[in-house]
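Narrative of accomplishments. A recurring question from our advisory board has been how the design workflow behaves on a single, concrete structure rather than in aggregate. To address it, we present the structure tokens for one chain from the evaluation set, followed by the sequence designed for it. No filtering or post-editing was applied between the two.
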């Protein structure tokens, strides 16, 4: 079984993914966590340190290349794993980012999405962008503006695929979010 977690920065995707995998393993199940990052945090921190801003198309090109590579490796690993595979982010995240930046959807990512094995579920960790911003500030490892988070939030909702996402209230504490994911998985497997 493959599930994907999506959501804006600060929604708790990575935290929920780790907690869910731990829950499954604690009850004797097999679970694998794979991350499909695009290098945004590293690029934005490096650009801020250097006092430059990468043009949106350049940043998208680098992010897309890294994300596609990670997604392909993750699907290869998933094909060889017998158990639950939790994918932290996917190509939908890049498509939402493109929309947020006013960039075209393009043809390649939708084409690739249609050809990859379809996940059994895509869980969208839904959170208000102001709460996500508060979390990002509190963790102190990166920064996102309220405007960028609002645009990213809107970008997800504009995806044609969004209607099929299963939404989880990510404003709850991390343990509750993971428990909700776990509950929905157990129900789906029953």
């Amino acid at each position: 079984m493959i599930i994907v977690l999506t959501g804006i920065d600060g929604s708790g995707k990575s935290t929920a993914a780790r907690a869910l995998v731990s829950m499954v393993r604690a009850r004797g199940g097999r679970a694998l966590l794979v991350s499909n990052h695009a290098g945004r945090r590293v690029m934005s921190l490096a650009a801020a340190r250097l006092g430059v801003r990468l043009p949106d198309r350049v940043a998208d090109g680098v992010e897309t290349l890294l994300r596609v590579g990670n997604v392909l490796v993750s699907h290869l690993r998933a094909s060889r794993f017998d158990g639950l595979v939790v994918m932290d982010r996917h190509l939908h995240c890049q498509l939402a980012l493109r929309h947020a930046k006013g960039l075209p959807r393009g043809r390649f990512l939708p084409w690739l999405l249609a050809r990859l094995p379809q996940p059994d579920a895509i869980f969208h960790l839904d959170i208000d962008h102001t709460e996500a911003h508060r979390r990002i500030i509190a963790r102190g490892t990166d920064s996102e503006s309220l405007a960028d988070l609002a645009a990213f939030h809107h970008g997800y909702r504009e995806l044609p695929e969004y209607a099929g996402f299963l939404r989880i209230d990510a404003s709850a504490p991390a343990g509750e979010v993971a428990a909700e994911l776990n509950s929905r998985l157990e129900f789906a497997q029953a």
